[in-house]
Amino acid sequence: MLASVVRRVERDFHNRCAATYAPTELVAGELRRRGFERVSVSGRGVDTVRFRPDRPGAVAARARWPEGDGPRILCVARLAREKRLDRLVDLALREPGMRVLLVGDGPCREQLAGAAPPNLGLAGALEGDELADVYSAADVFGLRPRRRRGARRWRRRADRRR
Fold first, then answer.
1. What is the SS3 assignment for the chain?
2. CATH number of this structure's domain 58-141, picked from the four choices 3.40.50.2000, 1.10.3720.10, 3.40.462.20, 3.30.870.10
3. Cα(28)–Cα(135) distance, rounded to whole angstroms?
């Protein structure tokens, strides 16, 4: 009974919106079957026409990295404390041969700019072709390691029940 009320509220909410986006035609069909109106498929994935290794703008984009002969490492992120980008700054300090370009903006921009060694550049927020060009110019794409808090949290809960 509660599930049907929740579904009705959800459907009514979405039907007041200009559009509801679904990732696939299969999901869109299911939403339409459940009474959702104005459902569009947004798709998912990467635009492989725009984001490709052989972009002509990649040559010019290489100038965004700090000077040097080391590999061009790209990190695209929101510049926020929870991203732990201080670790990227520490890595750049330990490995002066690396050339790191940090793309993004956020509340920690000033702090990161003040702490950045000469081999770490901040490009600010980039979009569209500019972003695609730096991806194309990079030798390595750096990702922040994921935390595994969930597993620890579940273990703690299980231990409390014993």
1. CHHHHHHHHHHHHHHCCCCEEECCHHHHHHHHHCCCCCEEECCCCCCCCCCCCCCCCHHHHHHHCCCCCCCEEEEECCCCHHHCCHHHHHHHHHCCCCEEEEECCCCCHHHHHHHCCCCEEEEECCCHHHHHHHHHHCCEECCCCCCCHHHHHHHHHHHHHC
2. 3.40.50.2000
3. 32
Residue type at position 80: A
Q: pLDDT tens digits, residue range 77-89?
A: 999 998 999 999 9
pTM over 0.90: no
